[in-house]
Write a structure and sequence with these properties.
alpha+beta; Gyrase A, domain 2; Alpha-Beta Plaits; Elongation Factor Tu (Ef-tu), domain 3; 21 strands; globular
Length: about 375
């Protein structure tokens, strides 16, 4: 892609309170045309046509600045014990060099964040966050505990290299040992003397890696090096694909999940171990919910209307027999499936595969049919290959 030489300081400005990532200048140079705010930071949202970005991802590879996935680092003799108290998932068998998708719940069982947990050492962990202020939450928990832990936000900024060519590109960058990382495993390494952590994770539902820069002064150097190596095999700069993440039923915090939802409503029972010996925040509440049942449930929908020209930017009402029974949380047109696909939260009484509901879009009602999630690659074969 032709580099963009515009003056970044004049073209984008949310104010000095919004942080720029170490890759900000590089992303603009390589064609970023628009940004939004996530975790109090700029995130590139526009590298041109979203459909082209989608096809670049699923056919080859894209490089995304996801520094907004801020890290909470937890160290100290009680680090593992503290993590066990923060999350419902049992991590007793999580080895050094392993990652886990986890939830953080509040005292009512509501979901505060759905980060990836990375274990870098015996007593060193990172929580790679979605869009909420978990460092503040964790500090509040720590100061009221008797555990010997230290919490901070380290100088760590992730990139995502995602798509079927990502393994080939990682091999050219770091060697075959890193390219052969198993799913949800990590390894420390370096490139051009720059310290990084590489993990087999990502927010794309495709084969992919995350590259965690551990020296914020080297952002442009790292970005340019990855593009230099990857461009000959088709790597493009890009942004996280709403199309692909909805196809894969991947949750977006504040859209599809927040503290008013519990894990059982989202089908995330596997991330809750009510039988683990250790206590955790929300355990009592989640036991009650499990016993009495859920009131609402996430479902997948096919919306029967003309192709949506953009993802929804508001929650669309879902109705049954004229009565509101839920809302669309994420909706987009999938050019691969040639369908409008959506994630929704509805009254559990109306969650029934194959049944029809109605969705209100711009004051018009359209039929929508309930289908299984995820919409594409239900066995997650692409991510795990």
């Amino acid at each position: 892609m032709k580099k963009n030489s515009i003056n970044t300081t004049k073209n984008f400005g949310f104010g000095t309170q919004i942080r720029r990532s170490p890759f900000f200048e590089a992303t603009v140079k390589w064609g970023a045309k628009g940004f939004s705010v996530y975790n109090h930071m700029y995130i590139p949202r526009d590298f041109g046509d979203p459909e082209e970005n989608f096809w670049n991802l699923v056919n080859c590879a894209i490089l995304c600045d996801v520094s907004v996935e801020r890290q909470v680092e937890i160290t100290g003799p009680d680090a593992k014990k503290f993590i066990q108290f923060l999350i419902p998932r049992d991590i007793s068998k999580c080895a050094v060099g392993q990652c886990k998708y986890v939830l953080l719940t509040d005292e009512n069982g509501g979901i505060l964040n759905d980060p990836v947990l990375l274990r870098l050492g015996k007593n060193r962990f990172w929580l790679s966050l979605a869009d909420s202020d978990i460092l503040l939450w964790a500090k509040g928990v720590a100061v009221n505990s008797d555990m010997n832990v230290k919490l901070c936000e380290p100088d760590v900024s992730p990139l995502q290299l995602q798509g079927p060519k990502s393994r080939e590109i990682i091999g050219m960058l770091f060697g075959q040992e890193i390219a052969d990382l198993a799913y949800y495993r990590l390894k420390k390494t370096e490139i051009l003397g720059i310290p990084v952590v590489v993990s087999r994770t990502g927010w794309s539902s495709e084969l992919g890696y995350e590259i965690f820069l551990c020296d914020g002064s080297k952002g442009t150097i790292l970005w340019d090096k990855i593009m230099e190596i990857g461009a000959p095999v088709g790597l493009k700069p890009g942004h996280t694909s709403t199309i692909r993440r909805v196809e894969g039923a991947m949750l977006s915090y504040h859209a599809d999940v927040n503290s008013s939802y519990n894990p059982f409503e989202l089908g995330l029972d596997r991330l809750v171990d009510l039988n683990k010996q250790e206590d955790f925040i929300g355990k009592s509440a989640l036991k009650k919910i499990k016993k009495h049942g859920i009131q609402k449930k996430q479902i997948g929908l096919i919306i029967e209307c003309a192709p949506l020209n953009r993802p929804n930017n508001e929650f669309w009402e879902i109705k049954k027999d004229g009565k509101k029974i839920g809302k669309i949380t994420s909706a987009v047109y999938s050019p691969r499936l040639r369908k409008n696909i959506a994630l929704a939260m509805v009254d559990v009484k109306f969650a029934c595969l194959g049944s029809y509901l109605e969705v209100k879009i711009n004051n018009k009602l359209f039929n929508c049919r309930q289908v299984e999630l995820p919409f594409y690659d239900p066995q997650k074969k692409l991510t795990k290959q």
